[in-house]
UniProtKB/TrEMBL annotation:
<protein>
    <recommendedName>
        <fullName>DUF2877 domain-containing protein</fullName>
    </recommendedName>
</protein>
<dbReference type="Pfam" id="PF11392">
    <property type="entry name" value="AllH"/>
</dbReference>
<dbReference type="InterPro" id="IPR021530">
    <property type="entry name" value="AllH-like"/>
</dbReference>
Amino acid sequence: MEGTVTVLARFTGYIYLAVAHAGDPVIVVITLSGGRIGPLSIVLPGHRTLPLNSSARGRLRGGVIEIDALRINLHQARIHESALKARMAPARVPSWLEGVLRDLAPLPRRTAILPSVSAPASPSAEARALTRLFHAGLASGHARDIAMAAGRLAGLGRGLTPGGDDFLCGFMVAVWFSAPDPIQTCMPILTAARGQTTSLSLAFLDAAAHGHVSDTWRDFLEPVSHDAPRTGVLKNVMAPGFSSGEDTLAGFIWGMQAMHMPPAALPPIPLDALSAMGGAPD
């Protein structure tokens, strides 16, 4: 693949690149030594920093990214396995989720998004209506209802990865973790998000829709951790960005509740909180 390369953003341990070619740009996360590894990561071992400015431009030719005087040989990079292989039987979900919420309760957090899916405040009429629509789509399998609900959340919020997108990513991880036919649910969500959000956020939504997650999420959901203390892995899941990690975890928890709780007990989608959230999963 060849094309123009643009630096979208840079954080400690990560550089987000967009490679332009026919169709949508391809998003690549150059992950430096010590950075968290995710589904878009190309790992450059031995590099802890790269001298690139945000919005710098260059080219990808012959497997080499060239930006200013910098050369990144992708043939020397490592593409990381990111498919979520862990699955949970429905009968185990209530007790497991209760344990997750119990372990989560004392942990410090940056925003109010997580309490809103475990001990919600008074929701707006719009949030209640969106919750009913989303749950109806899940229960019936109707792609139209799922897409309509997801379309209300896609692009909602601020920054490179708006809070609504992060919430949908977490929701789709829950679907892959515990639903029998995840593609049937996730593809309408991905379709609804196209054209409503940033190219970076759409790339993360695409990865989640196909069952790909970061190392921290794989650690959280692997069977070996199901009955183990979760404090450490929950902190790691919550850590990315200002609110991205917490927004994603909120979407996961709500998704597990929506699939395994009676409708009357389902917390409303935290629409107002999400509209103020966003960032980038640094």
